[in-house]
Amino acid sequence: MRASPASAELLDHTPTSTGETLAALSEKSPVLLVLLRHEGCTFCRNAMSDIARLRRQIEEVGTRIVLGHMGAAEDFDAFAERYGLADIAAVADPQRTLYRGLGLGRGRMLQLIGPRVLCAWIKSTVAGHLPGKIKGDPLQLPGAFLLHHGQVIKGHTYRDASDRPDYVTLATPLQAA
In principle, which of 41, 47, 114, 136 could form an S-S bond with 110, CB 3.0–4.6 Å? Predict the structure, then answer.
């Protein structure tokens, strides 16, 4: 997956909580950009738990994690703190410019409440990832992308709200052949 010139420009103009743009961060090291749904989403909470659990493995391959969200930066900081991820760079995108620019759409009914999603929702809730207040577009689907040198080099667009990518594999830069 390669970034289009439009998405490369988007990365160059998207600031993170560090004050640097996504493109600038990706010049220093690969960046795993995880664009979440909303803080109240049980699957977003799964993702945060997964990232917290896998963080060391992701960072060991030389990749930095950046979390994207649709809420206010202050609210997200408190949310990230619950998972021990408050020190990770974040991107606040309430207008969903980055989501749309990277090709992430809004979900259809089966992608948001279909049988597969409902089954996963029950498992997630039983595991303690209870839903909360919606902050952002509840129809937005998430995605995860590996950025390097200002470009998208790998990506995972979720097939539905409950999809759980292999973050470690996605975060591992492509090896030169």
Answer: 114
Distance of CA 2 to the CA centre of its chain: 18
Residue 148 has a CB neighbour count (10 Å cut-off) of: 17
- Cα 99–Cα 102–Cα 104 angle in degrees, nearest 5: 55
CA separation for the pair 79, 121 (Å, rounded):
20
Q: What is the pTM of this model?
A: 0.86
Q: What pLDDT, in 10s, does the model give residues 156-168?
A: 988 887 888 999 9
Encoding tokens for residue 133?
């207040």
Average pLDDT on 146-156 reads 95
Q: What angle do CA 91, 118, 168 make, to 5 degrees?
A: 45
Residue ranges and CATH numbers for the domains of the chain are 5-171 (3.40.30.10)
Sequence-separated (6 or more) residues with CB below 8 Å from residue 54 = 167, 168
17: left (phi over 0), alpha (psi -120 to 50) or beta: alpha
